[in-house]
Design a protein that fits this description.
- Keywords: Signal.
- About 40% of the residues lie in helices and about 10% in strands.
- The chain is an alpha/beta fold.
- The chain folds into two domains: about 425 residues, Amidase signature (AS) domain (Amidase signature (AS) enzymes, Alpha-Beta Complex); about 60 residues, no CATH class.
Length: about 525
């Protein structure tokens, strides 16, 4: 069911008053605020909580907070039924009538997925635009299929920057026609970032246990950074993109956005792997995924013996004079104390070209790849009001009030429509990005024998995106105005095990995340 979004946002004071209450379940208290997957599973095992009760609690949280935050686009009308099925399966396992095999970490746990990830149910998949409202997808996206197989409850669809921000250069982060402007739960005027703003806001504000987002360039790392949560941007091809509204087959990747590294790893374990429907990208997944999955790398001594490269220029420039820089220096000392070797003041060759999408060729490639990819996606829909980028442009022009055309326009769509497929200009752009990556990031990693690079904030995202490299961002602190910032760890393709070890040890050593102000003043115990 679509979540109603009011025109006038309720005041922060009113929401805080609404949050001041305590409830109990069967006489036992269970706190959903900051509850981890492990906390939830313990409550299930102890009989203090059922999946159905947990879904009810999160839906209540959404109904109270989402009118302000706009992080959730739709709540799954079948979520309660899915939760009840999970409860029956758990009860059967407890009674010995079925095996516990398959009842893993995510069994019965509510998950929010970005609205551009297809679900074959009563919810829409529209990339935030009215142009796709009422379209019908042929099947669940592969990542959703795998979440369901793991027993997760699909709680709903999270908002996003419309069409990932590819429609117009004027669309602000976190805005889409169907939901309006998403709001950062820490600083109301703060940037929620995009395009996976909804998944990040939803878990940050404890409207869901865990979430799944997508990234082409910065769309997991930046929202996670700005909303004080953990984001894992997997190696391109580690997770399937089948059934997800596309931008680029070279850069698109699907990954977890959660409150903790361990929760993100549980989600990654559930969704990673080869998919025949995305063969070309995922055929290498098997060689990257370690036997036994990723949770074995949640080690409290994961930093010991790691070689970490610090790239300051240009990633610290935007933080000059802020408290984030001093916090970053303190965190580097923590990394050293935990046994890591820090190689500081490293420089990446051609970094200014790499970070400029017009000089690197990224803009040329993405605009062409989007036109080709979206046409293929739309043609595979069972029904759809639009079947090509030209149709979307026409819809927007014919419905200016719905899509706020006068305010935001569709300049990038218009440029994309003028492209003519994957021609020589695109191939040259792709080759340039490959060379820039080899001579830049890969050379830096190899010559310094690094396990990962460490940067303040999300600024390294483009460098990692154009080469298909993985990254993890972890909450690292807050500016004087309360705006969050994170630390990003990036590595070569397939190095998720090392990145998880590093990120988990850092998280456990710093415990930097704190709940948003809208929750901090309310006890919110259940």
């Amino acid at each position: 069911m679509p979540v109603k979004v009011t025109k006038l946002l309720p005041s922060l004071t009113l929401i805080l008053l609404l949050l001041r209450f305590v409830s109990t379940i069967d006489g036992s208290e269970f706190t959903i605020i900051e509850a981890t997957v492990a906390d939830i599973q313990r409550a299930f095992a102890d009989g203090r909580l059922t999946s159905r009760q947990l879904v009810d609690l999160y839906i209540d949280q959404i109904e109270r907070l989402n009118p302000l935050l706009r992080g959730v686009l739709e709540v799954n009308p079948d979520a309660r039924h899915e939760a009840e099925r999970a409860d029956r399966e758990r009860d059967e396992a407890n009674r010995g009538r079925r095996s516990w095999v398959g009842l893993g970490e995510l069994h019965g746990v509510p998950v929010m997925v970005k609205e551009s990830i297809a679900t074959k149910d009563k919810m829409n998949t529209t990339a935030g635009s009215y142009a796709l409202l009422g379209s019908e997808v042929p099947r669940d996206a592969t990542v959703v299929e795998r979440l369901r197989r793991a027993g997760a409850v699909i709680l709903g669809k999270a908002t996003l920057t419309e069409w990932y921000g590819t429609r117009s250069s004027r669309i602000p982060n976190g805005w889409c026609a169907r939901a309006g402007q998403a709001v950062n739960p820490y600083v109301e005027s703060g940037d929620p970032c995009g395009s996976s703003s909804g998944p990040a806001i939803s878990v940050a504000a404890n409207m869901v246990a865990v979430s799944v987002g997508t990234e082409t360039d910065a769309s997991i790392i930046c929202p996670a950074d700005h909303n004080s949560v953990v984001g894992i941007k997997p190696t391109v091809g580690l997770t399937s993109r089948a059934g997800v509204v596309p931008i680029s087959p070279r850069q698109d990747t699907i990954g977890p956005i959660c409150r903790t590294v361990s929760d993100a790893v549980y989600v990654l374990d559930a969704i990673a792997g080869y998919d025949p429907a995305d063969h070309e990208a995922t055929k290498s997944a098997g060689k990257f995924i370690p036997e036994g999955g990723y949770k074995q790398f949640l080690k409290k001594d994961g930093l010991k013996g790691k070689r970490l490269g610090v790239v300051r220029n240009p990633f610290l420039l935007s933080y000059n004079g802020s408290s984030a820089v001093s916090a970053f220096e303190h965190h580097l000392d923590t990394l050293r104390k935990k046994g890591a070797t820090i190689i500081d003041h490293l420089e990446i060759e051609n970094i200014n070209i790499i970070l400029d999408p017009y000089q690197s060729g990224e803009a040329v490639a993405l605009l062409s790849e989007f036109k080709v990819g979206i046409k293929k996606y739309l043609e595979e829909l069972i029904k759809s009001p639009v079947r090509s980028l030209a149709d979307i442009i026409a819809f927007n022009s014919d419905n200016p009030d719905l899509e706020m055309m006068e305010k935001y326009g569709q300049d990038e769509f218009l440029i994309s429509e003028t492209t003519s497929g994957i021609g020589e200009d695109v191939l040259k752009a792709v080759e340039l990005m490959k060379k820039l990556s080899e001579d830049g990031f890969e050379k830096l990693m190899d010559e310094n024998e690094l396990d990962a690079i460490v940067t303040l904030g999300w600024g390294a995202s483009t460098m990692l995106a154009i080469g298909g490299y993985p990254a993890i961002t972890v909450p690292a602190g807050y500016e004087s105005d309360g705006m969050p910032f994170g630390i990003c760890f990036g590595g070569l393709k397939g190095t998720e095990p090392k990145l998880i070890e590093i990120a988990y040890d850092f998280e456990q050593s710093t415990k930097a995340r704190r709940v948003p102000p809208i929750l901090k003043l309310g006890c919110m115990e259940f």
